[in-house]
What we know:
Blueprint: E1 6-9, H1 17-34, H2 43-51, E2 57-66, E3 69-79, H3 86-89, E4 92-99, H4 113-122, E5 127-132, H5 135-144, E6 147-158, H6 164-177, E7 182-187, H7 192-206, H8 223-235, E8 239-246, E9 252-260, E10 267-275, H9 284-299, E11 305-311, H10 315-324, E12 327-338, H11 339-353
Parallel strand pairs: 4-5, 10-11
Antiparallel strand pairs: 1-2, 2-3, 3-4, 5-12, 6-11, 6-12, 7-8, 8-9, 9-10
Helix pairs in contact: 4-11, 6-9
Amino acid sequence: MVAGGVPARVDLKSAGADFWKRYHAYRALRHEESRPNDPLRPADIEEMRLKRDSPFDIEYRYEIATDGVLLSWFSGSTSKPGTAGHESNKHLFWSDIYVRPDHRRQGIASTWLPLLLELMDAHGCSVVGIGTEEVSGHAFLRWLGAEPKLSGAENRLKLADVNWGMVQRWIDEGSQRSPQTRLEVYDGHLPEAMWADFAPQLSSLLNTIPFENLDIGEIVVTPDHMRDWYARLDLGDERQHTVLTREPDGVISAITDTTWAPHRASIIEQRFTGVRPDARGRGLGKWIKATMLAHLHELYPDAKWVATENAGSNAPMLAINKKLGYKEYRASTEYQIGRDDLAARVKGLPARKS
Ligand SMILES: CC(C)(COP(=O)(O)OP(=O)(O)OC[C@H]1O[C@@H](n2cnc3c(N)ncnc32)[C@H](O)[C@@H]1OP(=O)(O)O)[C@@H](O)C(=O)NCCC(=O)NCCS
């Protein structure tokens, strides 16, 4: 067992002030390691988010703490039976492990592995996915025997450097090249009357994202997911903006969405952008992204950056982003390992430590 600390499951709903104190200290330390120049989400918003159960996933959180200090954090999740998309996602477990920098290389992360295996077996999961942006994370995951499956990066656009003339050109060309296509801009939640039509069209676009070799199930967004997502956004006063194009037959041919929040006023998050495969090559991607950018520049004149995540292999998206001026900020990799390979590593643990 780890000197001075025992793994303990955390019940976020009943956790007391002592837990939250050490949790926020851990969060600040982790933030300092990965994004020291970014605003940290306020404690009250973080607590509200964590206390809110996901209707779609079974979630686990554990800590190792000693003398009021959280030394290590372990979280895991898997799809809830009966939810949309469960059948193609039920074999997957997703996990995250963190050890305080001053307690690394003492075998603490390894002590989570038997628990990880137990949880995977409890839910019949055959593959676990763990992502990292840190050198230490890569080293640990390679030692574990996990394989890199998806490489990507957070890319950032400095708004002060944007060529607004080019942005306006992209907007003009968009409507000129597709005169029958209608552009729609939504600030805040999409009207509920739209959800039933929008959700399956968004799902089909999301399923065109390249995930390289990552084992993932179908992405299914339903109106229930949208309701939950909006409730979650509202907790932190996050404002979503959506720009889409619609063809004369009503089909949505392209979607892009962003979020902004007062507690991170300097950074706009550029989330998904997708163009239907049968509508590609008409400049719709440039049209919606440029429209969004010009719109947000007007709404949030004090924002400094737009941040977005992209797969390294997503050539069309990266090409548009590069032209706009996005530059790589933090590279990341998703690893996966099969249940039996993990079990073999777990079996080796006591011998390794004796
Ligand atoms: C990744 C992380 C959880 C590892 O925690 P840890 O307690 O130091 O890991 P362990 O001591 O159990 O390491 C097990 C083995 O992994 C390998 N390893 C771990 N960190 C390593 C590093 N920085 N360099 C080289 N090898 C490393 C070693 O083979 C190690 O065994 P050894 O020390 O006997 O040689 C920790 O470094 C961390 O919190 N990193 C940032 C968060 C992160 O990236 N998390 C996601 C990935 S899990």
